[in-house]
Amino acid sequence: MTLNGWIQIIVYCGIIILLVKPLGNYLTRIFNGERTWLSTALGPLERGLYRLAGTRDQDEHHWTTYTAALLLFNVAGLIVLYMVQRLQDILPFNPAGMAAIPPDLAFNTAASFVTNTNWQSYGGETTMSYLTQMVGLNVQNFVSAATGIAISIALIRAFSRKSARTLGNFWFDLTRSILYILLPICAVGTLVLVWQGVPQNLSPYTVATTLEGAQQTIAQGPVASQMMIKHLGTNGGGFFNANAAHPFENPTALTNLIHMVAILAIGAALTNVFGRMVGDQRQGWAIFAAMGVLFITGVVVCYWAEAAGNPLVHALGIDGGNMEGKEVRFGIALSALFAVITTAASCGAVIAMHDSFMALGGMVPLVNMMLGEIIVGGVGAGLYGIMLFVVVAIFVAGLMVGRTPEYLGKKIEAKEVKMAMLALLILPLLMLGFTAIATVLPAGLAGIANPGPHGFSEILYAYVSAAANNGSAFGGLTANTPWYTVSLGLAMLLGRFFMIVPVMALAGSLVGKKAAPPSAGTFPTHGPLFVGLLIGVIVIMGGLEFFPALALGPIVEHLAMLGGKAF
């Protein structure tokens, strides 16, 4: 580890902290329906979209109506994206003559982008036409991110409103997320990326002759517009197979910084939105602090493991850290930082191959996703994910002191705890269940590239990434097979929507509750004690659920390395 590396990490963390309050203030104004500096230009368009949808911003939804609208909208997106891929060969803007996508891969990709996962079992520049990238994948980058934001805002309203029946209007939340947040930031960000050298065109691929006389095809296309939303919306799908390690996606140190900041900016700011909307910003800062402690811990462990390198290599007289699979332009520090950022959020973008990380370094991205990606998390998904742990932590605190648990004056009763636990348990069920099946089926074992515990980690990482809607991969698993495309697609859909439904049911239960004023016996939820309790609940639950699987994979691989054996 180097001083320069730590300075880069500290500067990045400082930028995120500085963005939390101003961006949180702006987001709060958006979802409270207040005017902003964009209202004059976008207001008529917004109202026109409501008329087209047959709704008004004043029309509010019961939690069941809100959830039904959300699910139907995403089912429609799934069908449209699937058909775009299947008809790709006869649709326009296909200068490279890409063939239609096979049914299993089309299903996997449609499920991936609709769920904000962006897992890719294909190489973008060799598989998807410009039209599929723009009208199919890029559109879902916006709407899937907006869906996550909408759910988090509905849950925040559940805590902030008293004795109400409605959670807001899904179409209002979806539309304003896109019009006033995602589109403006992406428009400016795309221009900056083009300025830095990221392509944005519809030109045919360029064929160049190398110095040796060989022919080289240089892929290009509408790259910059997809890069900005893939990071801002914590989607992660790369235009190119090499993802953010490709020089067209990430040409400079400035673009790398923009990508990293964009990934966590909205998710971090939503904690401030929570504090503002419930009337106590300290509540938002407490949640942000818990996220921050877990994030910094992951960065320290991952950076230490990669900087220390492999002792078996050092024994050969080769000094230095583990540079295998790293982004050589940015070094070990930023490669490790990017890996932690992208798995702390539900963003599958990568600049280094996680498959090449040291065992403990690769375990950090795994743990980030296993915890439900609540360490800032995806846009919206991170906040509603950690609020589930807040409900459980408050319940545990109530048991310890013998009082009915309360949070922000609302009693946390059996129904709320059941809904929170149902949502939290769906992820380990999918992650561990699918991994167990794949490790005993020939079709699952055929995909691994390495023997022993590392091969197990490759399978485990794939299903953890899919169910957590992350989309990153170890890189050593051959996942473009019928077994993996179908099973991973199912894991993505179930991990997204089987978690959303109990979250919305929880919100529906909370919004109707009265809020009691704080008393002398009220457990304070804005101080260090609550932050520590929340972190403890997260770590203990994660440890109980996933430690056996980690012991079979990265932990035993690390111990084997210390004993002189590598995989």
What would you note in describing this structure?
- It is a single chain.
- It contains 19 helices and 4 strands.
- The strands form 2 sheets. It has a two-stranded antiparallel sheet with strand order 1-2.
- The radius of gyration is 23 Å and the shape is globular.
- Helix 4 (103-114) runs parallel beside helix 18 and helix 10 (281-308) runs antiparallel to helix 13 (359-370).
- The two termini are 25 Å apart.
- The protein has a domain at 18-206 and 217-277.
- Strand 1 (206-209) and strand 2 form a beta hairpin.
- The chain has 567 residues and is mainly α.
- The chain has helices spanning 3-31, 39-53, 63-86, 103-114, 124-127, 130-160, 170-195, 223-232, 253-277, 281-308, 311-314, 331-344, 359-370, 381-401, 414-438, 442-445, 452-467, 482-511, 528-562, and strands at residues 206-209, 215-218, 406-407, 410-411.
* Strand line-up of the largest beta sheet: 1-2
Q: Could you give a short account of the major beta sheet?
A: 2 strands, antiparallel
Helix content: 55-70%
Strand residue content? under 5%
Low-confidence stretches: none
Q: Residue-averaged pLDDT, rounded?
A: 90
Secondary structure class reads: mainly alpha
